[in-house]
Every structure is written in structure tokens, then in C-alpha cells.
Amino acid sequence: MKKKNKTELWIALGAIVIVYLAVFILEKTVNSGHILFTVLKKGAIYSLVAVSMNLLNGFTGLFSLGQAGFMLIGAYTYAIFTMPVAVKVTDQVYKYYACAVPFDTGIFVALICSGLAAALFAALIGLPVLRLKSDYLAIATLGFAEIIRAIFQWDALGPVTNGANVMREYKDLTGVTIPFTDIPFPPTLYVFLATGICIALIVLLINSSYGRAFKAIRDDEVAAEAMGINLFKHKEMSFVISSFFAGISGALLAMYQYTVQAAQFKSAMTYEILLIVVIGGIGSISGSCIASFLYIAASEWWLRGLDMGKFLGIDSATVFRSGFRKFVFSIIIMAIVLFFSRGLMGDREISFRGLAGLFRRKPAPADAAKGGGTDA
Amino acid sequence: MIEFLHSNLSYILSGISVGGQYALIAIGYTMVYGILRLINFAHGDVFMCAGLMMVYLSASLPMMMSIPLVLILTVVLGFLIERVAYKPLRTAPRMSVMISAIGVSYLLQNAALYFTGGLAKVYPTIPWLSDTVVIWDATTKMVTVVTPILTLLLVILLSLLIKHTKVGMAMRAVSKDFETSQLMGIKIDAVISVTFIIGSFLAAVGSLLYFTNYASVTPVSGGMPGLKCFVAAVFGGIGSIPGAVIGAFIIGICENIIKGGSSIFGISGSGWTTFSDAFTFALLIIILVVKPTGLFGEKATDKV
């Protein structure tokens, strides 16, 4: 058994390396304006936040809907920390306020700080909220996400958050350089590296003794408590860690988007992430990754024609007008929720043995470990 | 004190009016939760759809026909949602039903986005309701006066229905114990359908009153009122109809007082409107931590 696990691990590592190489080669060969890179970057960011939500919903059994709020904290922390002081003193961004943050940091520090800020908020919110159960918890976390959004848009905090106005001019993906040089880092590869490391950390956590405690709480709280698991401590831990990674993914989203605004992080965003988790299968990390790449690819690329008046060769500007894509999309999602409630992967993970069995004639797709990273 | 009331009467009046409208929506939440133990996330969007139907119907039909038609169509919508999205999942875990509810909410919002083109639709003026009246020097619309009266009337009718009719008795039985009432020969599906029909009907009435006040409908205008009404239902004790009504009035009034914060408390700033939304959730969290069963809720014990 041990030995088998070891070969599996090597295959997985090899596959991940191949994915990264593929991304690297793609970035070097394909025109950087191609929609493929939008999908890859956004898909990777969403897979991180989906996995972080899965850690809560799928592995700890806490039905939390606060992810958009923590992403908001991460995105804003990142934007505030990396905006150069030179920009802050002018009224380029802080038009109506005098900026109260007199320093700027590098990208790496800001990323970590955005995670920590989200985690700090989560720790505070968790104290009252985690005593609640199932749907009450869902509503309370949803409510807290809304409160966070209200606070960030409050004009009394304008000197820090710029009120309800757009944040921009911070260091985005094009500003990433290879450490100690001025050579720009390939942006898609950077997003993949950052999310890859974070997801790997989550996987390690889930496979640790803490992860087993989380799963015990999910399966039966009373039994878990009887076995000596400190319920509150583990719930809080899962909540804080999940928020930490949600914060980082928010920061990455801010990097990818060039501008960020609190109004974007509505509860609809949380619903979107939840639906990704459901499509991938609640309790499956690889499922979440695959689903988020599929979701982003479908909504940004494949179904684009539904909004543009032309789809599959059918030309009809009256039916295929703006908004039709999302309409079709939500019908597909409803179908998945109703008829395939276990999602793509259920609660299983991709195993290479299973894949080899599935594609006996074909070679196992190399991108499987990262969830269809290259062809999505 | 009198002076203070007098100068801020318009906020209090609109609070009472909004409270009544919230009460009508909150009843839908509390009844569905009482029976299915499901937060019907789509309820707020049903409310929004009722508003949009009114916009489209009144464009081509006279008001006397479009109002009843809106009520009927909303009821049909609520009924269909239950049949299509919730009934197949009756034996599934509670989480999947909730996810399905979120899915329906997402679907309704996107459908509305598609059909309206994302623009705010101007709500038609309903003749008598939109007239202005002056109460104690505060100018307001007729709907402000009508709402609390109509709400109380409907709530009394509803409680009569629940206390004294056969279907009401069945509803009470189902909310007490789902499985036992099934064994006693109650047709669960019919009872649940009736619950959704009543809930959607009240939401449609609520939308007539609410949008007369607000004058425009957007695809997302159901979301916030929906969440607030759920909070009202929780505040009053979920499953209890008088609780939901009282909770809704409290939330409506407090929210409007906060909205008028710059003149009432004398602290200027434009953040008060955003905080009126945040207040609702703060209230939710306080009530859930202090008294999780709400004002009138029954204590439930978990059996191991």
C-alpha cells in the first residue's frame, strides 16, 4: 500500500510539473492577448477560492457563505499595500480623501498580508458565528460578508479604502518580476504558482490529523466531540484557514483585474463560488479545480457567443443578446444541481490509476492534477 | 419628545410602511422554513419577478386586469419552483435543497437580467395607491397608510386559515413532525404546495406595495429585501407568523431611522444608507447569539 501511494505521488508531482511547463510554453508561444490566458488566470484564482470554500463546506461541514467578504478584504488589503506612495500622495486614486496609509510594500508581502487580514477578520467573526448550526450559519456569514462590504464602502473610512470608489494603480500582474532582477515574470505562470502552492498547503492540511478531525466533525459532531475533538477550536481553525486562502485569492483577483471595487463582491459572487464547488463535487479538491476551470471557460469563452448574437453558426441578434449566456448557464447549473447532485467528482479525488483505466487506449491527460489546466 | 417625533415623522412613517411590506414577504419565509426546514433563497426573487410582471402586464392591459393577473402568475411561479426544484430533493440532505434554492435564485435573477436587458424598469403608478396624503405635516403616499392595515388584515385572515381550516391543521401537523403526519394520511405534497402558494401570493401583494414606494424594479432588487425578510423571520422566531410580522416591523422601522441618521442623530455623512443594510445583519447575529429561537420561537432539542 505504502509503495503504491508513493508511485501515485510521483506521478502526481510529474503531472503538476508538466502542467507548469505547458503553461510556460503556452505563454512563450501564444499571443498574450488570447482569451485562453484569461481563462487560465481567472480559473486558477477561482479554483483557489473554491478549494478554500470546499475546505469549509465539504470537509468541515460548515455551510458558510462569507467567501466574497473575505475576498474583498484580501483584494483591498493588497491594493492598499502595493499602491506606490507616489500615487497615494497625488489625487490620482484617492481623489476625495487624503490617503492615510503612508507606505507601500512588495507584492509577496502584500499577498501574505491580505491573507492575514482576511484571517484576522474571520477569527473575530468566527467567535460568535461558529456557535450556530447549518442554515443559521449560512445566513450569518452571508450577513457578515454584506457588513464587510458596507464598511469598506463607508466614507468615514475613505482615507484608507477610498470609499466606494475604484482602487487602481497598484501593482498588478504585469508588475511581477523574477526576484532580484527586472525581468517580468510570466503572469499566468505566476498565478498558477501562487494558487498551486496554496492548494497544496490545503491538501496537506486535509491529509493531516487536523484534516481528519475536520472530517470527523463533518460526519457527526456529537461523535467527534465524544472522541475528544475540541469542536470550537477545530471549526475556528478551519474557518480562519479557509478565509486566509480566500483573502489570497481575492488579492490575486485584484492583481489580475487591474482595478477593484467593493461593489463587485456581492453575495452573487459567493453563490457563484458555491455553485462551482457543487459542480465539482462537495468534498473533492480536484473536482473544485476542474469545475472552476470549466465554469470560467464556459462563461468567458465557449458561451460568449450567446451574448454576442452568434452561437454555433446560428445568427440571431434578438435571442442572443446580452445576458442570454448567464441565463443558459443558470439553467445548466440547475440541471446539475437537480440531476447530478454529486457533481463531477462526488467526494472522490482524481486518481491516476482510475484515469488509466478510463482511457486505456489514450495516454492519461497530463493536466489532470491541476484540473484540466491546459485545455480548459 | 413630541417635537422630535413630529420633525422625523416621515422616517417613522416610511419605516412602518416598509415594515408592513417586509412582513408580507417574511411570512413566506417563515412558513416554508416551518414546514420544510429550508431557507427559500428564491423567495426574494419571486417577489422581484412579481414586480417585473406588473411592469410588463400593465404596459398592455388595464390596471384592473393586470393586478389580479400578477397575483395569479406569481402564485403559479411559486408553485412551479417548488414542484421543479424542491420536490425531487425531498429525501436529499438539507444542504442540497438549500443549494437548489440558491440555484433557483441565481436562475431567476439571470432570467430577469436577460428579459429586462439589465435596465431598471419604471414601476407603473397604481392610481389610488400613489396619491399623496399629508399626515401631521409629513407628506407621504397613500400606500404608506394602506400597507399596515392591509398587512394586519392579511395576517388575521392567514391565522384564521391556519387555526380553523383543515388545510391549516394539516400545515401545523406537518411543521410539527414531517414523517408522522405523512403516516397519518396527510398529503404532504399538497400541503407544501399550499404553503408555497400562500407565500407567493403574499409576496406578490408585498411587491405591489413595495415597488409603488420605490418606483423602479431591477433584477437584483429582490435580493436585499429577501435577506432582510429572512432576518425578520428569524428575529421573530422562525416558524411563527406573528413573530415574523413583529420582526419585520421592527426591522423596517429601525432601518428607516438609521437611514435618516444624518438628521436624527445629527451626525452627517452618506454612509447611513449602507449601514441600514448592515444593521439588519448585526441584529441577526445578536439575536442568534443571545436567543437563537427568536422572540416567539419554540425551543427545539436535538436528539442524539
Write a brief caption for the model.
Chain A has 376 residues and is mostly helical. Chain A has helices spanning 2-29, 35-59, 67-82, 85-89, 107-129, 134-152, 158-161, 187-206, 209-219, 221-226, 231-257, 267-280, 285-302, 305-308, 324-339, 352-358, and strands at 310-311, 314-315.
Characterization of the model:
- The complex is a heterodimer of chains A (376) and B (304).
- With 376 residues, chain A is an all-alpha fold.
- Chain A has one domain.
- Chain A has helices spanning 2-29, 35-59, 67-82, 85-89, 107-129, 134-152, 158-161, 187-206, 209-219, 221-226, 231-257, 267-280, 285-302, 305-308, 324-339, 352-358; strands at residues 310-311, 314-315.
- Chain A has a two-stranded antiparallel ribbon.
- In chain A, a hairpin with a 2-residue loop joins β1 (310-311) and β2 (314-315).
- In chain A, α2 runs antiparallel to α13 and α3 runs parallel beside α6.
- With 304 residues, chain B is mainly alpha-helical.
- Chain B has a domain at 18-221.
- Helix content of chain B is 73%, strand content 4%.
- Chain B is built from 13 helices and 4 strands.
- In chain B, the strands form 2 sheets. Chain B has a two-stranded antiparallel ribbon with strand order 1-4. Chain B has a two-stranded antiparallel sheet with strand order 2-3.
- In chain B, β2 and β3 form a beta hairpin.
- In chain B, α2 (9-36) packs parallel to α6 (142-164) and α7 crosses α9 (188-214).
- The mean pLDDT of chain B is 84.
- The interface between A and B is large, with 47 and 49 residues.
Kindly report the average pLDDT value of chain A.
82
Q: Roughly how much helix do the residues of chain B carry, as a percent range? A: over 70%
The backbone outline of chain B, from C-alpha atoms, is: globular
Neighbour order of strands in the largest sheet of chain B: 1-4
Taking pLDDT < 50 over at least 5 consecutive residues as the criterion, the unreliable ranges of chain B are none
Outline the low-pLDDT stretches of chain A: 362-376
Q: What's the N-to-C terminus distance of chain B?
A: 53 Å
Order of helices and strands of chain A: HHHHHHHHHHHHHHEEHH
| Structural class by helix and strand composition of chain A | mainly alpha
Q: What is the 3D form of chain A?
A: globular
State the share of residues found in helices of chain A, binned by percent: 55-70%
